[in-house]
C-alpha cells in the first residue's frame, strides 16, 4: 500500500501542510472563519454547514484562546492564532474573527461562533454599527481580537426593524437610533474607527 503524500497548500506567498511540524513536538493547523460564524479547515474545498466544525467543546476552546497573530509565522495571511499546548491553530477570516450568531434573550448576551452560552458577550444596543458601504452590522467584541465582531446576516435581519433613521433618510443614510425592549438608544457609531468610513 502506498503512503499518502501530504498536500501542500498555498495562500498568497505562504505555503503550508495541515498538521506540519516546523519544530519537534509542534503541530500547525490552518483554519478559515466565514461571515456566518462557521469554522473550517482552510483547505476544505466545499465550505458549508456539513463540512464546518460543530463540536462545541472544541469551538469554545479555540475561540477563547484566539488572539492576534504575532507569532512570526504566517502573520500576513492568517491574522489570528489560537494556541493549544504545542499546537498552533492559525486563522484567517472572511470578515471578523468573531461572528455573533444568536441573541440569548434570557441573559441579554450575544453568542458567537457556535459556542452557545459558553461564548458570549454582553449585548450593547447603542454600540451596533451598520457599515454604510456593505450594510453589514457590527458589534463590540473581546479586546483580544481588536474589539469588533460581525453580526451574522440572519441576526442582522432580525435587528433591522429596530433601527431608526432621520426622517426621509431610511434608504440612504446611517441609522441614528435603535429601539430595543421599550428603550430608544442613540447609536454611538464608535466602531466606525475600525473601518475606512467617510
TrEMBL record:
InterPro entries: DUF4505. It holds the Pfam family DUF4505. Belongs to the UPF0598 family. It comes from Tachysurus vachellii. Residues 11-21 have a biased composition (Polar residues). PANTHER family: UPF0598 PROTEIN C8ORF82. Residues 1-21 are annotated as: Disordered. This is Uncharacterized protein.
Amino acid at each position: 500500500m502506498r503512503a499518502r503524500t501530504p498536500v501542500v497548500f498555498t495562500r498568497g506567498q505562504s505555503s503550508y501542510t495541515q498538521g506540519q511540524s516546523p519544530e519537534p513536538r509542534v503541530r500547525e493547523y490552518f483554519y478559515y472563519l466565514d461571515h456566518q460564524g462557521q469554522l473550517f479547515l482552510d483547505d476544505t474545498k466545499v465550505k458549508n454547514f456539513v463540512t464546518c466544525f460543530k463540536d462545541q467543546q472544541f469551538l469554545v476552546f479555540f475561540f477563547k484562546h484566539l488572539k492576534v497573530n504575532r507569532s512570526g509565522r504566517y502573520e500576513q495571511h492568517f491574522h489570528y492564532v489560537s494556541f493549544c499546548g504545542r499546537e498552533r491553530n492559525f486563522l484567517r477570516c472572511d470578515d471578523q474573527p468573531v461572528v455573533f450568531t444568536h441573541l440569548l434573550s434570557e441573559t441579554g448576551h450575544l453568542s458567537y461562533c457556535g459556542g452557545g452560552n459558553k461564548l458570549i458577550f454582553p449585548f450593547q444596543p447603542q454600540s451596533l454599527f451598520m457599515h454604510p458601504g456593505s450594510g453589514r452590522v457590527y458589534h463590540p467584541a473581546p479586546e483580544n481580537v481588536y474589539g469588533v465582531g460581525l453580526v451574522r446576516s440572519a441576526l442582522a435581519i432580525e435587528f433591522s426593524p429596530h433601527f431608526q433613521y432621520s426622517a426621509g433618510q431610511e434608504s440612504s443614510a446611517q441609522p441614528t437610533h435603535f429601539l430595543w425592549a421599550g428603550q430608544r438608544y442613540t447609536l454611538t457609531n464608535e466602531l466606525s474607527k475600525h473601518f475606512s468610513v467617510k
